[in-house]
Every structure is written in structure tokens, then in C-alpha cells.
Amino acid sequence: MTEPHPPRTTSKESTAIAPYRQSDAETDPEGSGEDRDQDRARAARELGDALRALTAAATSTEVDAATLRKIADQARDLTGPLSAASRTRHTAPSIDDAKPGRRMYNPAVGPGNPIAPPMRVEVGDGVVVGTCTLGLAYEGPHSYTHGGVSAMLIDQILGHAHAALGRPGMTVALSLRYRRPVPLETPLRLTAWVPEESITDRRTGPQATIATQDEPDRVLVEASGVFVVPSAEQASRIFGDSRLPSWQRDRY
Ligand SMILES: CCCCCCCCCCCCCCCC(=O)SCCNC(=O)CCNC(=O)[C@H](O)C(C)(C)COP(=O)(O)OP(=O)(O)OC[C@H]1O[C@@H](n2cnc3c(N)ncnc32)[C@H](O)[C@@H]1OP(=O)(O)O
């Protein structure tokens, strides 16, 4: 059976992806220059890292019940101070930043979100590459990645490939083929690209694969998606006119 492969270099099929580096924002939340709250962004990343370590410990521990209950009490005590100032679902995080495209709490790439691995994304010349290593918190079949987690990472990397053409869009269709199990605790490489023939005014059909970094040509998961840039009317209906900051409304 033929393995699906992304273009290795800029090719006729993929030149529409501009070689800009949207990913720096996702992976370097401190940003630079005009960042309005660099220290808070750094602190949010530190908290994300600490909670990821806690989650990793909590999903691999074999300590006794008394210890589990003691830790649960301590963890509950942490929630109060964090909730002293909160946003709602209609308000963007104050440390998100449009200019570098930073989404601090995105569940796939946001360094401040403890459920994000987080995947690092590099936008190259015609190909978008994501890297991450998944721990036991992401386990589906014993010692392998949950299929829904693979789908989330795929959706994200496909979205970056679509967005690299200029305008972020929304997934309207996603299709995955799980060829081989995706191992935990193994550096992974996700690759996405947009075939030129799949591009219309509002829509693209990006494709992606998951492989290990050691064997990038051995495809574990292959996927294709359809991404649509919502019309102004659709964006207004979905996101509203006033509750999100203008930079976020303007992204669609
Ligand atoms: C410079 C920038 C830097 C940015 C730097 C940051 C990067 C940032 C990366 C973010 C990466 C996030 C990646 C996660 C992305 C999500 O997770 S998005 C969340 C999941 N998706 C959703 O919730 C979408 C829900 N769907 C909807 O709300 C509606 O379907 C939409 C999107 C408003 C579209 O409305 P609709 O009425 O369904 O579609 P409609 O307008 O009739 O058709 C639109 C086009 O899509 C086509 N279409 C619709 N459905 C399908 C389908 N199932 N199959 C094929 N085609 C279809 C139609 O044929 C039509 O095509 P055209 O005829 O225009 O060529």
C-alpha cells in the first residue's frame, strides 16, 4: 500500500502556503517587543508546565489511597486563588495576542493549558510541522495514544496549514485513517500541507500525517480536512459583534 507523503520541499502542489512563522507565538508565549503583558504570559506558561507535570504524575502514580486523598485536598485548595479573577467564555484571555497569533490556552498548542502537550508548530515553506511527546495522560489503548487525542492534534495542524494561506478558518470536515498505533513517550512529528487543487476562495482541503520523529516516513495516522473561512455574517452569528476583542473578530 502506498504511504501518503507531504511535499518534502516547496512544490507545485504546495507553494500557496506562505513561509511565515505564525508558530513562534504559540511556542514562544513571552513574545517580544510590544507584548503587553510578558511577565504574566511567562507566569501562565510556568503554571501550565507545573500542572502538566502534576497531571503526568497523577496519571502514572501507584501511591496509596491516603496519599491520593491528601493530594486531592491540596489540589482543591489551589482553585480558589486562581478563580479570584476569571474570564467567561465570551472574553478572550488577556494574554492572547493577535500579532504573533498567540493562543495561550489552546488545548493542542497552548503552553498555559495543562491538557495541551503542548505541540510546537513550525510553518515552513509549503509544509507545517508539529512536534510533541505524549505521556500517559493521553493513553487510549495500553501504551498508545487515544485516537481522539490524535484527531485533536491533526485538526490543529491542518488548521495551521489552512491559516498559513492568510485567513484562519474552521473545520467543517475531518477524516482520519489510523494505520498504526501512535506510541506514548515517543517524540512525534505531524506534517500538514494544502494541495493546490483543494484551494478555493473560502475553502481548503489540507492533508496531514502523524509519524514518529525517528521514522518520519512510516505513517501512523493520515488525515484530510475541509476548512472554511466563515463569511462575515457567519462569523458575526458564531462569535457575536461585541464580546470578543476586535483583533479576534477580525481574524475571520
Ligand atoms: C494570517 C493568519 C495567522 C493566524 C495564525 C494562527 C493560526 C491559527 C490556527 C488555528 C488552528 C485551529 C484548528 C482547529 C479548528 C477548529 O477546531 S474549528 C471548530 C470545529 N468546527 C466548527 O465548529 C465549525 C462548525 N460549522 C459551522 O459553524 C459552519 O459549517 C460554518 C463554518 C459557518 C460554515 O457554514 P456552512 O453553512 O456549513 O457552510 P457554507 O457557508 O454553506 O459553505 C462553506 C463552504 O464549505 C463547504 N462545505 C461545507 N461543509 C462541507 C463538508 N462537510 N465537506 C466539504 N465541504 C463542505 C461548502 O461546500 C462551501 O464551499 P464553497 O462552495 O464556498 O467552495
From TrEMBL:
It holds the Pfam family 4HBT. The keyword Cytoplasm applies. Residues 33-44 have a biased composition (Basic and acidic residues). It is a peripheral membrane protein. InterPro entries: HotDog_dom_sf, THEM4/THEM5_acyl-CoA_thioest, Thioestr_dom. GO terms for cellular component: cytoplasm; membrane. The keyword Lipid metabolism applies. It catalyses: decanoyl-CoA + H2O = decanoate + CoA + H(+); tetradecanoyl-CoA + H2O = tetradecanoate + CoA + H(+); (9Z)-octadecenoyl-CoA + H2O = (9Z)-octadecenoate + CoA + H(+); (5Z,8Z,11Z,14Z)-eicosatetraenoyl-CoA + H2O = (5Z,8Z,11Z,14Z)-eicosatetraenoate + CoA + H(+). Signal peptide: none annotated. This is Acyl-coenzyme A thioesterase THEM4. The lineage of its organism: Bacteria, Bacillati, Actinomycetota, Actinomycetes, Pseudonocardiales.
